[in-house]
């Protein structure tokens, strides 16, 4: 048997990836990730944690007919840096956006019609959907292994990050058998406590 069969990657990470794949997630390794338009995840730099290419595609699919400006407003709101907020407040705010949608202003339909308008032209506020809660299969599920992120303190690379419609929902740090669970928990808590508010809301 190969010595590599006893590594954390083979013992824990690869089976975890296979489990997500069996549940219908797309899986990809970012260990050799390229950046820019041709990169596998579409990120410009390692400082980005929202996959805007996937997010934009999901927002367009879930909100047909809305103008590009409304889609961009939603992307900007979801990508906004919340590191100055407490972790609890940031989580509550993002939770509401995911659950209830993002309020965006769009021109009234009359304003989109060529020619003179019989009355004043204004704007309407609509809630742009981020997640299809009724039909989960309509969402985009992507599991990325070895996803490097540069934060204010240092670079971190969680073993697995689960993205739903381009947004990081799940961060998983794996340990091979033999590592005490409490020690692994304490190590990960210390490692990500300061980074997570900056990197993942």
Q: How would you explain this protein's 3D organization?
A:
- Strand 7 and strand 8 (167-172) form a beta hairpin.
- The strands form three sheets. A four-stranded mixed β-sheet has the order 1-4-7-8, covered by helices on one side. The chain has a two-stranded antiparallel ribbon with strand order 2-3. Strands 5-6 form a two-stranded antiparallel ribbon.
- It is globular, with a radius of gyration of 20 Å.
- The protein has seven helices and eight strands; from the N terminus they run H-E-H-H-H-E-H-E-E-E-E-E-E-H-H.
- Helices cover 36% and strands 18% of the residues.
- The N and C termini lie far apart (43 Å).
- By secondary structure, the chain is α+β, with helices and mostly antiparallel strands.
What's the topology here?
Elements: H1 8-22, E1 26-29, H2 52-62, H3 68-79, H4 87-100, E2 102-107, H5 109-112, E3 123-128, E4 141-145, E5 149-150, E6 155-156, E7 160-164, E8 167-172, H6 181-193, H7 196-199
Parallel strand pairs: 1-4
Antiparallel strand pairs: 2-3, 4-7, 5-6, 7-8
